[in-house]
Design brief:
The structure holds two protein chains of two kinds. Helix content of chain A is 43%, strand content 21%. Chain A is of the alpha/beta class. Chain A has a five-stranded parallel beta sheet, sandwiched between helices. The model of chain A has no long low-confidence stretch (mean pLDDT 83). In chain B, strand 11 and strand 12 form a beta hairpin. In chain B, helix 19 (486-507) packs antiparallel against helix 23 (617-632) and helix 38 runs parallel beside helix 39. The longest helix of chain B is centred in the last third of the chain and has 54 residues, at 996-1049. The chains are: A alpha/beta, B alpha+beta. Chain A binds chain B through residues 11-12, 14-15, 17-18, 21-22, 55-58, 60, 84-85, 104-108, and chain B through 1024, 1027-1028, 1031-1032, 1034-1036, 1038-1040, 1042-1043, 1046, 1064, 1067-1068, 1195-1197, 1199.
């Protein structure tokens, strides 16, 4: 069985490696530093799940999401929004109720459990 | 004589021993007696040396005599001259059975015995004294019981002594008195001291004054046994005292109350009594005068006068005099009556006097005198007769002119009847009638002419002008001014005579007339009739001497006759036969007169043919000429007319008076009666009738005529009729005078006088006049009222110091004086006045000098009106106006007054202060003309609001803008109020409040609010960010630790992986620590004011920082360029400067991915300049502005809280330096820090 593909949108290299450590064994990970890159990767790959750090260098996560969700192709794209502040999740849910907010810090088990529930 | 031995023994005895012989001679006394002073040996009859008082005679009961008589021993006890009791023992000394001598032994009797006896004796005496005493004497014991009393005391109580004894006070007296007396008695018991008092008591049912003294009675041990009371009835004394006091009080009150000053002095001229009036006059309180002499009170001069008077008094003279003194600078007249004060025996014991200040009376008197003198002078110096007639024509006044004209002295005629004395007998009756009518008020003759008889018996015709004085419609007197018109009438009569003569000539026009020069006797003229009559030619007469003419030979045949003519001036021959040239004899009447013509005497010879008497026409003419010359000087018109009024002739000032000529009247064009005014003609109609019907009727009348030039003139006419011999009315004769001027003047005077009087008393103006000394001479009724007096006359002679307004007197008088001294008027000025009731009123006054006819100033006339109400209203208006003006001008806002037309009519000073415009620039402009100072929109708003308000719609405040003179546009809020006058809106009062500052601060506030909101937002984001920043590393640490945990749980942990995990943990821990340090440092810096500073080496700090960061620089592959000069020192805080450099460099590293970092450090003057430049991403312009604010991260994705630059800025500020930034996006950023080297 082919591994499912997860797009990680994260500018912090340390966080990128943490995601790799946690998920690489179970999923195909593609990583984007910024929203522009994330969009092109979304276009190019079949992405099963997008893990999105809300704080991005070129665009805020919510505006990126809002933009993305308007496109029919990504309407059903499952998104895990990583925040340090729980309240932002509520804002994101207004854009798409299916978005799942995950607050840092989290451990591998918890992250994998959430991902598995979604995909 | 006893032997020497015996003597010695006897001398030693204490008793007195004496030896007395038969002759009662004391032969010897022993020492005891000698010691007592009785060295009386040999003294006959002086044997009773001790016991007996008598010396020269043997006294009764002498023990020695008894012994001699009886031969037995005698013992007696007697009181000695010293008051002691002595026991005398007389012993016989016998010789041959007979008593030869007696020895008397004297010794003091036993002491106690004697005292007891003495006490008994004195008791008796006392008792008798007490019983008979006039005083009430009583004794009381401690219980206030009467233990002893005398008759008088018992009598005073109306009881027996026995009844009273042992009774208490309460049993004897009414409770009150008893108590009081008990108290007094007990007080004596208590204190042991005497007391005395005076009381009114009832004694024998009479009220009596008792002077009582209470004395303690002590026993031998000094204890008070009883109280002895002695009361003396002093009622009489008291009464006398009382009545004296009463009369003194009466006298005192009397002297106090008499308004006259009253005083009395003693013999030493010291004032004993002085009443209030006198004290007031002196100007000192009475207490300060009493006991002093005049010298101690008055000035030297006055005192001297007073002394003189006093001394005269003391020598018995009475003084009554008026003196002038100066009191406080004012001249006063004092009437002093001063008499010697005598006692009953007529001895002078002092002076009494009264002084009355009669200054007012004096002044009034003087004023009156002056006025009287005035009028008297006028009266006496007038050229006309002035008389005043009272009842029954009694003469009350008779002036000098009257004396002169009548020849009587005023004293002779005063009080006598005018009619009896002066009116000719034949007219008296008539005049009595006239007088009667006048008295009854039925007749008033203002102008009247009648003859009077002078003292010399001459008859004089007087023309009167009468003024009737009446009181309460009852005749009082007539005041008449008379002019002697005798001369005038005589002239009239003469005129008549002359006219008669003329008429005669006229009637007999056949007189021959010759005019002859008196001096030479030559004929100078001859009338044609002469020629007719006598047949001589004119030439034949001329140049001839009178006597050369043949027919006159007999008449004036020679010079002698002519001389007679010259002397007599008149020759008359009734019937003179004359022969004419032709020889015809005629009879003539020859009249020859001498009279002057043109200064030359001529003789006129009238020769009349008495056969045919005719007046020669020439003579007639001549006479007429003469007549004319007379009447030409006559100011009136003389006329003759027939009874039907047709004039025969009119002469005199006909033309001048009427404008018509004499001829006009003669022709009857017009007739005289035609020019008389119709209404006046009616008045005199009756007299016309009388003239036409009554013979010898004469009258005078006044009427108006209309002259040719249509002017009205007043005519006074004297007219009478004459009769011929048969008594038939023949002619009217009269004189006419033009009295227009006189009449007019009269009327004017009358009118003006009446007017004046009326005006004077009714005008609401006060009028007064004063003399040169500023004393009132008179005033009108209103003024008198103001002054608080009843009648104007009450004021005369007073001055302003005596008025209610004495407060202002000095001001008034200064004005008065100025007017009098300069002669200039002072008109319509306002001044205050205090009324008699103390009220203060305002006057508008005018003052003018008062002049006599010569033009000398004799006083001043003042006129004023009460303008208090006006003034008050004005004052109130002024005050209110002022009040409003104050509000207006001192308001903090600009205020405009805008009239109904929208024109600004007033503005307050704030206009200048706030907007910079002067009033002149704005006033008079309409709202629409304010374009220069207001934007159009504001003008439109202003106009719109103004238009609404002006029709009565209230508008809320609104905002406009005003351009100030300096060009600044400022906001104003206009709050406008309609100005109303009654119901009408007259304009607008616009209050402009400068709201620029308010608005600005509002905007500022808005801004502050906005920024606060921003800050608030920021704060939330900061909190979010910081939380994020802090949470981030910790989250990572936690996540890595869990990964590491998993790794380590493996049986074969990958060491490399674990090491990697640990690296991440370390890095994040460092970052976290750094962030926290930064935050803490900033918060520390924010609260800091000063830094601890020291000399620091920038280079070494810089290097140590670069050492720390070198790894970062290298790991990023950046190049470092250093341009740092060595030895750069700075006074500063080492820790913070280090932090500053580190932050800047760290920032540069953080935002730079490639290129280099350039660090420069150099000194420039007093400053040290550090710059850190990079080739990083740069900062947008937008972000530069918030660069130094804390918690703003230029790049949100960059880690770090973003407070590094805030820290830098704060550090630089604390070092008094500055930090600048230059940046270009994508190219790089350069921070430059300038720090003063000396900190």
């Amino acid at each position: 069985m082919k591994k499912k593909t997860i797009l990680v949108v994260e500018d912090d290299p340390e966080m990128q490696s943490i995601y790799k450590e946690m998920l690489e064994s179970d999923y195909d990970l593609i990583i984007a530093d910024n929203s522009r890159k994330a969009r092109s990767l979304l276009e190019a790959n079949k992405v099963d799940l997008m893990i999105l750090d809300i704080i991005l260098p070129d665009e805020t996560g919510d505006s990126f999401l809002a933009h993305l969700k308007k496109m029919p192709r990504f309407e059903n794209l499952q998104v895990l929004a990583i925040t340090v502040l729980g309240d932002l999740t509520y804002e994101l849910c207004k854009i798409d109720p299916k978005i799942i907010g995950v607050a840092k810090p989290f451990d591998r088990k918890k992250l994998l459990k959430i991902i598995k529930e979604v995909i | 004589m006893p032997d020497q031995k015996f003597r010695e023994i006897l001398d030693r005895l204490p008793e007195g021993v004496s030896v007395i012989d038969k002759d009662m001679r004391i032969l010897w006394v022993n020492k005891a007696l000698r010691d007592k002073g009785f060295d009386i040996e040999g003294c006959k009859g002086r044997h009773c040396h001790i016991v007996y008082k008598q010396n020269n005679e043997v006294c009764k009961g002498c023990p020695a005599v008894e012994v001699f008589r009886t031969g037995k021993e005698v013992r007696v006890t007697e009181k000695g001259a010293d008051g002691k009791e002595y026991e005398v023992t007389a012993l016989p000394v016998k010789e041959s059975g007979e008593v030869a001598r007696v020895i008397e032994i004297v010794r003091e009797s036993q002491k106690e015995d004697i005292e007891e006896r003495a006490a008994r004796l004195s008791n008796v005496k006392c008792q008798s004294f007490i019983e008979n005493a006039e005083d009430i004497i009583f004794m009381m014991n401690k219980e206030c019981r009467v233990v002893s009393l005398n008759q008088k005391a018992a009598h005073s109580l109306g009881r027996n002594a026995e009844e009273i004894m042992g009774k208490t006070m309460h049993e004897l007296f009414p409770p009150k008195i008893a108590e009081r007396q008990c108290a007094n008695v007990l007080k004596v018991f208590r204190t042991g001291e005497s007391s005395s008092y005076i009381r009114v008591s009832e004694m024998c049912r009479k009220v009596a004054w008792l002077n009582t003294s209470l004395n303690p009675v002590k026993d031998i041990h000094g204890n008070i046994e009883a109280v002895l009371g002695i009361s003396r009835d002093i009622t009489e004394q008291k009464r006398a005292e009382e009545s004296l006091k009463e009369s003194e009080e009466k006298l005192r009150i009397a002297t106090e109350n008499i308004t006259e000053a009253f005083f009395a002095k003693d013999i030493n001229r010291k004032y004993m009594i002085i009443n209030t009036a006198a004290a007031r006059m002196v100007g000192l309180p009475a207490a300060k005068i009493i006991g002093k002499t005049a010298e101690q009170i008055f000035s030297k001069k006055d005192a001297k006068t007073i002394r003189k008077v006093d001394e005269m008094n003391l020598s018995g003279q009475k003084i009554d005099r008026v003196e002038t003194v100066f009191f406080r600078g004012q001249e006063r007249f004092l009437h002093t009556i001063q008499n010697p004060l005598k006692d009953r025996d007529g001895k002078i014991i002092g002076i009494v006097g009264t002084v009355t200040d009669i200054t007012e009376e004096r002044k009034a008197e003087q004023a009156l005198m002056a006025e009287k003198q005035w009028s008297e002078t006028l009266l006496q110096s007038a050229p006309s007769i002035m008389i005043c007639l009272g009842e029954k024509s009694k003469i009350l006044l008779f002036n000098k002119a009257a004396e002169k004209i009548t020849g009587y002295n005023a004293e002779d005629v005063m009080g006598k009847s005018w009619i009896d004395l002066f009116i000719p007998k034949k007219q008296r009756k008539e005049l009595y009638g006239v007088w009667e009518k006048i008295v009854k008020g039925k007749l008033t003759l203002h102008n009247y002419e009648n003859p009077i008889i002078t003292k010399k018996g001459e008859e004089k015709l007087i023309y009167w002008n009468n003024t009737f004085l009446s009181q309460n419609h009852k005749f009082r007197m007539v005041f008449s001014i008379g002019q002697d018109v005798t001369e005038k009438r005589w002239a009239e009569k003469a005129l008549k005579a002359s006219e008669n003569r003329y008429r005669r000539l006229f009637e007999s026009a056949k007189d021959a007339i010759l005019i002859v020069d008196v001096d030479s006797g030559q004929i100078v003229d001859a009338n044609p009739f002469v020629q007719d009559l006598l047949g001589y030619s004119h030439k034949e007469f001329l140049g001839k001497k009178l006597w050369e003419i043949g027919f006159l030979k007999d008449i004036v045949a020679n010079k002698k006759n002519f001389r007679e003519l010259q002397k007599k001036k008149y020759i008359h021959y009734e019937d003179l036969p004359l022969e004419t040239k032709s020889g015809k004899e005629i009879h003539v009447e020859f009249v020859s007169n001498v009279y002057p013509i043109n200064g030359k005497s001529v003789i006129q010879c009238n020769i009349r043919d008495i056969t045919e008497r005719h007046a020669a026409e020439k003579a007639l003419m001549q006479s007429e000429q003469k007549y004319r010359s007379f009447v030409e000087n006559f100011q009136g018109i003389a006329y003759n007319a027939y009874t039907n009024g047709i004039p025969i002739f009119f002469h005199g000032a006909v033309k001048r008076i009427t404008g018509y000529t004499e001829k006009d009247f003669k022709k009857g064009k017009p007739r005289w009666d035609q020019i008389i005014l119709k209404e006046d003609f009616k008045k005199i109609q009756k007299s016309w009738k009388d003239l036409a019907t009554k013979p010898d009727y004469s009258t005078s009348r006044e009427y108006r005529i209309l002259t040719k030039d249509k002017k009205i003139r007043w005519i006074h006419e004297l007219i009478r009729n004459t009769c011929d011999e048969s008594g038939k009315l023949k002619l009217l004769q009269g004189t006419l005078y033009d009295i227009t001027d006189q009449k007019r003047a009269d009327e004017k005077i009358k009118e003006s006088r009446n007017m004046l009087r009326l005006v004077f008393d009714t005008i609401p103006v006060r009028v007064f006049w004063k003399d040169r000394n500023l004393n009132y001479l008179g005033c009108n009724k209103l003024f008198a009222k103001d002054a608080g007096v009843k009648e104007p006359k009450d004021l005369i002679g007073k001055d302003d110091y005596q008025m209610g307004w004495k407060e202002q007197a000095d001001i008034y008088r200064a004005d008065d004086r100025a007017v009098i001294s300069t002669g200039k008027e002072k008109l319509n000025y306002e001044e205050p006045q205090t009324t008699p009731s103390g009220e203060k009123i305002w006057l508008r006054t005018s003052k003018r000098p008062l002049k006599d006819p010569k033009g000398d100033i004799i006083g001043m006339l003042g006129v004023y009106e009460d303008i208090t109400e006006k003034k008050k209203a004005e004052q109130a208006l002024k005050e209110s106006e002022e009040r409003y003006r104050n509000i207006f001008s001192s308001a903090n806002d600009i205020i405009f007054l805008i009239n109904k037309k929208g024109v600004i009519i007033d503005a307050n000073k704030r206009l200048k202060e706030i907007a910079g415009y002067s009033r002149e620039e704005i006033l008079g402009k309409s709202i629409s003309q304010l374009r220069k100072i207001m934007p159009l929109s504001s003008i439109a708003t202003l106009l719109k609001n103004f238009m609404k308000r002006i029709v009565g719609i209230d508008m809320p405040p609104y905002e406009v803008q005003l351009r100030t003179k300096s060009g600044e546009l400022r906001d104003f809020e206009i709050n406008a109020v309609a100005l109303r006058s009654g119901k009408n809106i007259t304009g607008d009062l616009a209050i402009l409040r400068d709201t620029t500052e308010r608005n600005r601060s509002r905007i500022d506030l808005q801004k502050a609010y906005e920024s606060l909101k921003e800050v608030d937002k920021l704060k939330s984001s900061i909190i979010r960010d910081t939380t994020h920043e802090f949470k981030n590393p910790i989250s990572k640490i936690k996540m890595i630790s869990s990964l590491m945990n998993e790794e380590l749980a493996k049986t074969k942990p990958d060491k490399k992986r674990v090491s990697y995990y640990l690296d991440i943990i370390r890095i994040n821990s460092d970052r976290f620590l750094k962030e926290i340090t930064n935050v803490l440092q900033l918060s520390r810096l924010q609260s800091m004011e000063h830094l601890e500073k020291e000399k620091i080496d920038i280079c070494s700090i810089g290097h140590s920082v670069l050492d720390e960061l070198n790894l970062d620089i290298k790991s990023k592959g950046l190049k470092l360029r250093l341009n740092v000069s060595k030895r750069n020192y700075l006074i500063g805080n080492k820790e913070f400067i280090r932090s500053l450099i580190r932050n800047l460099v760290e920032n540069a590293i953080k935002f730079t991915d490639k290129g280099y970092i350039d660090i420069t450090c150099k000194t420039a003057g007093k400053d040290l300049i550090i710059s850190v430049a990079d080739t990083g991403k740069g900062i947008s312009k937008k972000n530069i502005s918030t660069l130094f604010q804390p918690f703003t991260q230029a790049d949100p994705s960059m880690s770090g809280v973003g407070i590094g630059l805030s820290i830098c800025k704060k550090i630089v500020e604390l070092h008094n330096g500055k930090i600048d930034v230059e940046s270009k996006l994508g190219k790089g950023t350069k921070f430059t820090v300038t720090l003063p080297i000396k900190g």
